[in-house]
Design goal:
binds zinc ion; 21% helix; single chain; mainly alpha
C-alpha cells in the first residue's frame, strides 16, 4: 500500500486532534467508556472560544487533545 502521508486538513480523523494533529486520546475512539475520557474531568471546561478554534467541519468528528485544551484554556480570559 502506498498511501500518501501528507496530512489533509479537510480529512477528519476522529482519533487525531484537529488543531495539532496529535492523538487526542479520546476514550470513544479508543473503544472505552466515554465517561472515562479525559475530557470528562470536572476541571475541563469547554468554552465558546475553544469551540470556535475548531474548524466547523471538524467540530463533530474529532476531539481536541489535552494539550490544545489547556493551551486554549490559558488563552481564554
Ligand atoms: Zn491538539
Amino acid at each position: 500500500m502506498t498511501t500518501p502521508t501528507n496530512s489533509q486538513p479537510n480529512t477528519p480523523q476522529a482519533n487525531l486532534c484537529p488543531l495539532c494533529g496529535e492523538e487526542n486520546r479520546c476514550a470513544i475512539t479508543a473503544g472505552d467508556d466515554p465517561a472515562s475520557c479525559w475530557c470528562q474531568a470536572p476541571e475541563i471546561e469547554f468554552t465558546e472560544a475553544m469551540k470556535a478554534a475548531v474548524p466547523s467541519h471538524l467540530r463533530l468528528s474529532a476531539c481536541l487533545c489535552p494539550a490544545c485544551i489547556s493551551a486554549l484554556a490559558s488563552r481564554t480570559e
